[in-house]
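Journal club prep, shared notes

We agreed each person brings one worked example of a sequence with its structure written out as tokens. Mine is Aldehyde dehydrogenase family protein. I'm keeping it raw so we can talk through how to read the token line rather than staring at a rendered picture. Sequence first:
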Amino acid sequence: MAPWNYPISLTLIPFATAIAAGNRAMLKPSELTPRTSEVISRMLAANFSIEEVAVILGGPEVGAEFSALPFDHLLFTGSTPVG
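Then the structure, token by token:
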């Protein structure tokens, strides 16, 4: 789950390390950066299969559902009250 203030680096750096380690990844970019989120989504969809990478777009409700999924690891950057 990536924040609005560094939407590219805090989305793609953790993603790159997850893929390099042989994992699949689901990304949830910030809803406050819709154009950047859409570019990231299109870029990754053009280069990875849905079985390897999924980009989930949406607002706070989607973020809450996303973070409730049974992940082995979840990287979240943000404040405790928000997260």
